Structure to design on (434 residues):
C-alpha cells in the first residue's frame, strides 16, 4: 500500500509567506504594545476633595487715634565765630614780648596785652613832645603878660578910641595859644603811639592763629594773628522750602527767637544737648539749593560759664527745630508703610485686610502724618511685614505680648521703608496743606 503524498509549496508561495512574516510580525508587535499602553495608561477615578479654605494672615495691629502732632524740622550746620578778626600792628617796632595768652588756642579777656613792641623810640618821642608843650606853654604865658601890659599902657595914655589888635598884641597871643594846642596834640599822639606798642585784645576771645614771633620787626598793618570772640557763636542752618510753612522764623531783630536743640554730629551722644536760638534769617535763598539759611545764636559755646562740654568753632552739629503742631491727624509708623505709601487697615468685624493709599502731609524718620477723613478714628493698622498679600485677605490678629520667632520675622521692615529711615531730615509734603 502506498503512503499519501505531500504537496510541497511552490517557490512563489514560499516567497510571499516570508514577506508577510517580515511585515506583519513587527506590525503586530507594535499593535500589541500600543494596546497594552492604552490599558495601563487609564487612571482610576479619584474621589473629589473639598476646597481648602485660604489660610489667615497673621499680623499685629495698632490703633490709629486722632491726635495733635508736634512737627520737628531736622537740619545741620557748622559752628562759626560771630566775630573773627585779624590783629594788625598800628606802629612800627620790634616785638619785645609775646604773652602766653597769644598762643594758638589760648583764651584771653578784653584789654589783655597780647604783644609788646620795643617802646624806647616812642618814649623818646613822648618826652620831646612834652618838652615842646612846656616851651609853648611858657611862650603863651609871656605873650599873655605882654598883651595885658599893652592894654594897661594904652589906657594910661588916655586915648578915647579903642586900641587895635596889633597894639594889644592879640595876633601874637593867638599864635601862642595855637602853639600850645599843637604841642598838646603832639603829646597826645606820642602817648597814643606809646600805648600802641602794647597790642591789646579787642574782646573776650580765643586765638585761632598766631603769625608773628619774638624779635620780629613789624610795621603798621602787619598781620599779627587771628582771634575770635567767645561770648557766643553762630550756626548757619539750611531750611528747605517745603519746611518754611511749618516755621515762623524771625525776620527782624524785634521778632521773637525760635528755640533750637543742637547735638554733636561727630559723636553719638543723644543726651548731650546745647540750647540755641534762631535770631535772624538771611535775606535771600541759596541760588543752588533754593534753601533759606537761618542763623542760630549759641551763648557760651566753650562752656566757660555753664561748665558744659565745649562746642568748638568748625564743629558740625545736628539741629532740631520745633515747628507747627498739626491738629487732629493720624500718625502712621514707618514700619507699617509699604511701597508707594501703602498701608493695610484691618476690618474689625470681618477681620479682613483693607488696603489704602495714603498721602502724607508730613514725614520724618519714624512716622508719616496723614489727614484723611476716610480713615476712621480708632481704625486698626496692620504693623507686621506683609509680603505679596492680596487685598481683603483674612486676618488673624497676633496678641501684642506674643514673642515668637514668627512674630520677629513678621515685623521685619521692607526694603523701601528701610531706605527711607536712613534720612536725617524731616520731609514735609507739599500737595496737601497742613
Amino acid at each position: 500500500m502506498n503512503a499519501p503524498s505531500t504537496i510541497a509549496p511552490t517557490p512563489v508561495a514560499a516567497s510571499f509567506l516570508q514577506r508577510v512574516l517580515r511585515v506583519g510580525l513587527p506590525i503586530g508587535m507594535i499593535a500589541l504594545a500600543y494596546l497594552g499602553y492604552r490599558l495601563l495608561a487609564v487612571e482610576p477615578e479619584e474621589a473629589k476633595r473639598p476646597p481648602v479654605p485660604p489660610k489667615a494672615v497673621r499680623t499685629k495691629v495698632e490703633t490709629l487715634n486722632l491726635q495733635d502732632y508736634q512737627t520737628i524740622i531736622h537740619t545741620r550746620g557748622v559752628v562759626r565765630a560771630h566775630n573773627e578778626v585779624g590783629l594788625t600792628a598800628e606802629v612800627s617796632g620790634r616785638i619785645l614780648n609775646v604773652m602766653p595768652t597769644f598762643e594758638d588756642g589760648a583764651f584771653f579777656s578784653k584789654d589783655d596785652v597780647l604783644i609788646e613792641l620795643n617802646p624806647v623810640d616812642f618814649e623818646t618821642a613822648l618826652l620831646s613832645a612834652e618838652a615842646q608843650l612846656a616851651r609853648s606853654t611858657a611862650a603863651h604865658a609871656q605873650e599873655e603878660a605882654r598883651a595885658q601890659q599893652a592894654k594897661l599902657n594904652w589906657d594910661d595914655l588916655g586915648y578915647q578910641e579903642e586900641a587895635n589888635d596889633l597894639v594889644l598884641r592879640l595876633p601874637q597871643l593867638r599864635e601862642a595859644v595855637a602853639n600850645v594846642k599843637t604841642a598838646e596834640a603832639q603829646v597826645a599822639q606820642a602817648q597814643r603811639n606809646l600805648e600802641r606798642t602794647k597790642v591789646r585784645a579787642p574782646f573776650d576771645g580765643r586765638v585761632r592763629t598766631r603769625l608773628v614771633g619774638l624779635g620780629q620787626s613789624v610795621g603798621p598793618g602787619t598781620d599779627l594773628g587771628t582771634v575770635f570772640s567767645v561770648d557766643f557763636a553762630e550756626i548757619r542752618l539750611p531750611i528747605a522750602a517745603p519746611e518754611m510753612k511749618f516755621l515762623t522764623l524771625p525776620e527782624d531783630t524785634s521778632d521773637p527767637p525760635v528755640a533750637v536743640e543742637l547735638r554733636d554730629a561727630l559723636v553719638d551722644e543723644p543726651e548731650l544737648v546745647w540750647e540755641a536760638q534762631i535770631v535772624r534769617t538771611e535775606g535771600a535763598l541759596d541760588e543752588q539749593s533754593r534753601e533759606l539759611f537761618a542763623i542760630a545764636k549759641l551763648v557760651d559755646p566753650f562752656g566757660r560759664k555753664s561748665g558744659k562740654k565745649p562746642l568748638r568753632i568748625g564743629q558740625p552739629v545736628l539741629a532740631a527745630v520745633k515747628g507747627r503742631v498739626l491738629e487732629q491727624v493720624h500718625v502712621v509708623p514707618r514700619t507699617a508703610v509699604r511701597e508707594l505709601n501703602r498701608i493695610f487697615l484691618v476690618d474689625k468685624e470681618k477681620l479682613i485686610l483693607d488696603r489704602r493709599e495714603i498721602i502724607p502731609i508730613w514725614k520724618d524718620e519714624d512716622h508719616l502724618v496723614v489727614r484723611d477723613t476716610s480713615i476712621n478714628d480708632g481704625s486698626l493698622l496692620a504693623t507686621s511685614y506683609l509680603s505679596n498679600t492680596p487685598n481683603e485677605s483674612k486676618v488673624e490678629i497676633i496678641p501684642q505680648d506674643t514673642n515668637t520667632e514668627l512674630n520677629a520675622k513678621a515685623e521685619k521692615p521692607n526694603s523701601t521703608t528701610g531706605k527711607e529711615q536712613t534720612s536725617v531730615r524731616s520731609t514735609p509734603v507739599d500737595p496737601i496743606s497742613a
Notes: The first strand starts at residue 57 and ends at 59. DSSP finds six helices and 23 strands in the chain.
